[in-house]
Amino acid sequence: VFCSRQPASILPRFAGNARMATGAWSKYATWRFARKFVTGTALFYCVGNTIGSHLGELVICSGPSMHPTIQDGDLVIAERLSIRNGSVRVGDIVGCLNPHDHNQLLCKRLTAMERDRISPTTEHPLNRVPLGHIYLRGDNAAVSTDSRHFGPVPRGLLQIRLVLRVWPPSRAGWLSNHWWFEHEEKEL
Questions:
Q1: pLDDT at residue 147 above 60?
Q2: In the annotation, is 65 catalytic?
Q3: 26, 82, 87, 108: which is the annotated catalytic residue?
């Protein structure tokens, strides 16, 4: 049976004045949307900021110093936990602040830890890495500015460890290949 009359409980609060009902509803809907948008944006920012500063982040790499391992424009996932708990090891690709310009992040391979032997260079005649320092080198030694030029880097400048390339998809995969590093000829 069809009935054209609706019960009073379903009718809007302002059923007698259609213009008022529409205006009140649209103001309420706009306010509700704005409140949800601002709350969602703030939550997204807080969660993203917490993850970025404590767990890891996405990094876009540029420059030829880590070629062929990392190429210009690669998008890489980097993590911070191994830096905080001190579990980085020789062979890891790390991001550290440039010792001469703390606004620039350098991506290099960690080649020696404190007290490890290194070959002296003309700029830095050390034969061991000092305490609290690490030795970094780019995979493309011909164009890389690294510890051979500015010496061992204070461990406190380490920021991230690069672990996984996600872009481009054709080259996606893990980055810290310890087997490759441990079996290549080392000429530090």
A1: yes
A2: yes
A3: 108
